[in-house]
Specification:
By secondary structure, this protein is mainly β. The chain folds into two domains: about 1-55, Roll (SH3 type barrels), CATH 2.30.30.370; about 65-260, Alpha-Beta Complex (Fumarylacetoacetate hydrolase, domain 2). About 10% of the residues lie in helices and about 40% in strands. The protein is built from four helices and 20 strands. It has helices at about 70-75, 150-155, 160-165, 205-215; strands at about 1-10, 10-20, 30-35, 40-50, 55, 65-70, 85-90, 95, 100-105, 110-115, 115-120, 140-145, 150, 170-175, 185-190, 195-200, 225, 235, 240-245, 250-260. GO terms for molecular function: acetylpyruvate hydrolase activity; isomerase activity; metal ion binding.
Length: about 260
């Protein structure tokens, strides 16, 4: 099931996405969900065309835990070794934006990069989750762009400002609850030109490995997000660019880059 979060007439709701096509095609409708999708809920039967609503970030995470250097070719392209243990860092909740929202080029950077990633959405409060039970705590998956101020990352060493600035974590367009994450195509285009193309099967550590590793240290809450790393091909974004992340079986997340006001 594809579950979107949206606003219409000033109200925010969740809905199940029905039909085939793109958000702009007019072929998709939303069946509004009664309640919160992480808990017991049911479809209301009240349907609205998806192209008549504003899609929001599919979740509002209390935290986004991101994993660096989880694809060997990406680590190599930046001159890094594959780490012995997962490299984890945080992106604050204020960094999250949704499909169609603008990425604001930070004033303190002159080298902004895209990083297409598979995002794991947690569905229940959990900690110390063994790998064999990880699937029980996952709500679903969405597309993400770990937008990075590369020059700041290299200059400051700590990644908080480079990867945690406002609008640096686009998520969407919705959460897919029934996809197998083990071997999906990940693609990133900028102005229609392909920049990244990889498969989740190339991840050094699997989704189960990452959820178990993160939850060993901290409690995960419903709606929390884990970013699983990016394949090779990261590159620059400029003001005016349109960047799209497409993940097989999930959908396409599109955002434009604007000058920070």
């Amino acid at each position: 099931m594809r579950i979107a979060r949206f606003s219409i007439d000033g109200n925010v709701a969740f809905g199940a996405v029905e039909g085939e096509g793109t958000p702009e095609s007019g072929d998709l409708v939303l069946d509004i969900i009664k309640g919160i999708p992480y808990a017991d809920h049911e479809l209301s039967g009240v349907k609205v065309p998806l192209n008549k609503v504003r899609l929001l970030p599919p979740v509002l995470p209390s935290k986004v835990v991101a994993i660096g250097r989880n694809y060997a070719e990406h680590a190599a392209e930046l001159g890094n070794e594959v780490p012995d243990v997962p490299v984890a860092f945080f992106k604050p909740s204020t960094s999250v934006i949704g499909p169609g929202d603008s990425i604001a080029y930070p004033s303190f950077s002159s080298e902004l990069h895209h990083e297409a990633e598979l995002a794991v959405v947690i569905g229940r409060m959990c900690r110390e989750v063994p790998k064999e039970r990880v699937k029980d705590v996952i709500f679903g998956y969405t597309a993400a762009n770990d937008v990075t101020a590369r020059d700041v990352q290299q200059r400051e060493k700590q990644w908080a400002r480079a990867k945690g600035f406002d609008t640096s974590c686009p998520l969407g367009p919705w959460v897919e609850t029934e996809v197998d994450p083990s071997d999906l195509t990940i693609q990133c285009t900028v102005n229609g030109e392909q920049r990244q193309l990889g498969r989740t099967s190339d991840m050094i550590r699997s989704v189960a490995d990452l959820v178990a590793h993160v939850s060993e240290a901290m409690t995960l809450l419903p709606g929390d997000v884990i970013l699983t790393g990016t394949p090779a091909g990261v590159g620059p974004l400029n003001v005016g660019d349109e960047v799209a992340v497409t993940i097989e079986g999930i959908g396409t997340l599109t955002n434009k880059v604007i000058k920070r006001g």
